[in-house]
């Protein structure tokens, strides 16, 4: 093993830079070279490579986004395109790759391993939608950013006795909504993982206002439905003023939290050790704070399991 290539792919996530830094510093400590591949799999195929040094990654631990840039490059699903990527790696003496991204990016990591380049996947996505891990890099920062925004929305909601429907990211996964819903004291958390009764939510809020409540917050996962559509439906059954608010891409930015920095650093350090042991085709995850690995192939047959106890607790306090 000579040189590790590292790339970030799919949606960016706070902590990706911390993971790249950890990989670079660990690799250098072990006498290996590290090459940053810019723009995800698109840059891999184009040969957009940059040598990483300890100095280059030194201050990266606190920066949001990804300094290697990211891309969505669906063409990488085609084997002939993957082979072009492998040619580029061979040309640059890179024999192993670490891919930081979500479930889509793991397909790319597995394809590289099958073509002879041992690759390890690190879970870099705010969505927390990857099977066999209860944490993904960026989740904690995204939740804190959304929480801060909801706390502010609550101020204006109270002043005007309004209900706010706050749409948070997560694609088909409700984990961000479950976390920030509970942490913000939402009146309802609406996620794809669990059926909901919009009439019941509206009636509970109407009753709350009648009893002296001065605002309402509904945290809506983006995978359920559009926030405006939800508002229209809600107002059919409720007697109150309501506004819809989409938090959007702000949830992907910002300096990573302590948790995201520590976990990204642990995962980056671990990924290099796996490659040094000759491993490939593995995804690094975390369960109950402990690092774990799973065959990427097994992930594709599995689904992510959310901590639905958060919903149970919220339901018990709000219904
Ligand atoms: N089936 C696949 N085979 C190879 N590469 C893939 C495959 N699916 C996705 N990718 C690569 O991973 C990238 C990121 O995937 P995407 O689903 O957009 O985000 P994420 O990895 O964050 O879930 C894609 O743009 C593509 O380059
Ligand atoms: O940045 P885009 O292309 O608008 O995509 C938005 C999507 O990306 C995410 O922010 C992150 O998703 P991935 O990590 O799978 O790329 C989702 O929460 C959201 O649905
Ligand atoms: Mg994804």
Automatic annotation (TrEMBL):
Subcellular location, principal: cytoplasm
Means of activity regulation: Allosterically activated by ADP and other diphosphonucleosides, and allosterically inhibited by phosphoenolpyruvate.
UniProt-annotated binding residues for Mg(2+): 103
Residues spanning the signal sequence: none
Keyword Flavoprotein: no
Binding site for ADP: 21-25, 154, 185-187, 213-215
Cofactor(s) required for function per UniProt: Mg(2+)
Location of this chain's protein in the cell: Cytoplasm
InterPro entries: ATP_PFK, ATP_PFK_prok-type, PFKA_ATP_prok, Phosphofructokinase_CS, Phosphofructokinase_dom, PKF_sf
Binding-site positions, ATP: 11, 72-73, 102-105
Enzyme class, UniProt record, top EC level: transferase
Catalysed reactions, as listed in the record: beta-D-fructose 6-phosphate + ATP = beta-D-fructose 1,6-bisphosphate + ADP + H(+)
A GO molecular-function annotation: 6-phosphofructokinase activity
Protein EC: 2.7.1.11
Binding site residues for substrate: 125-127, 162, 169-171, 222, 243, 249-252
Stretches assigned to the Phosphofructokinase domain: 3-275
Active site positions, chain numbering: 127 (proton acceptor)
Keywords of this entry: Allosteric enzyme, ATP-binding, Cytoplasm, Glycolysis, Kinase, Magnesium, Metal-binding, Nucleotide-binding, Transferase
Pathway: Carbohydrate degradation; glycolysis; D-glyceraldehyde 3-phosphate and glycerone phosphate from D-glucose: step 3/4
HAMAP family: Phosphofructokinase_I_B1 (MF_00339)
Family: Belongs to the phosphofructokinase type A (PFKA) family. ATP-dependent PFK group I subfamily. Prokaryotic clade 'B1' sub-subfamily.
Quaternary data: Homotetramer.
Function: Catalyzes the phosphorylation of D-fructose 6-phosphate to fructose 1,6-bisphosphate by ATP, the first committing step of glycolysis.
Protein name per UniProt: ATP-dependent 6-phosphofructokinase
């Amino acid at each position: 093993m000579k040189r590790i290539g590292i790339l970030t792919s799919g949606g960016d996530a706070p902590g990706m830079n911390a993971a790249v830094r950890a990989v670079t510093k660990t690799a250098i400590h072990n006498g290996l070279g590290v090459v940053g591949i810019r723009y995800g799999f698109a840059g891999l195929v184009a040969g957009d490579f940059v040598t990483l040094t300890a100095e280059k990654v030194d201050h990266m631990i606190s920066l949001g986004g990804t300094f290697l840039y990211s891309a969505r490059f669906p063409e990488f699903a085609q084997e002939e395109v993957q082979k072009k990527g492998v040619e580029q790696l061979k040309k640059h003496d890179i024999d192993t790759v670490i891919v930081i991204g979500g479930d889509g990016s793991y397909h790319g990591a597995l394809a590289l391993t099958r073509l002879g380049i041992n690759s390890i996947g690190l879970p870099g996505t705010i969505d927390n939608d990857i099977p066999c891990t209860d944490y993904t890099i960026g989740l904690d920062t995204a939740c804190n950013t959304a929480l801060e925004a909801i706390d502010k929305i609550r101020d204006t909601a109270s002043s005007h006795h309004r209900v706010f429907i706050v749409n948070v990211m997560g694609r088909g996964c409700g984990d961000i909504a479950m976390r920030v819903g509970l942490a913000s004291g939402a009146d309802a958390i609406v996620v794809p993982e669990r059926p909901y009764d919009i009439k019941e939510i509206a009636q509970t809020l109407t009753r709350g206002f009648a009893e002296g409540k001065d605002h309402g917050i509904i945290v809506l996962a983006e995978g359920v439905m559009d926030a405006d559509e939800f508002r229209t439906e809600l107002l059919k059954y409720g007697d109150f003023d309501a506004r819809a608010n989409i938090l959007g891409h702000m949830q992907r930015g910002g300096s990573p939290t302590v948790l995201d920095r520590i976990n990204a650093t642990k995962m980056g350090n671990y990924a290099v050790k796996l490659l040094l042991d000759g491993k490939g085709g593995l995804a690094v995850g975390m369960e109950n704070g402990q690092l774990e690995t799973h065959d990427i192939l097994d992930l594709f047959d599995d689904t992510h399991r959310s901590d639905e106890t958060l919903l149970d607790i919220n339901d018990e306090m709000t219904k």
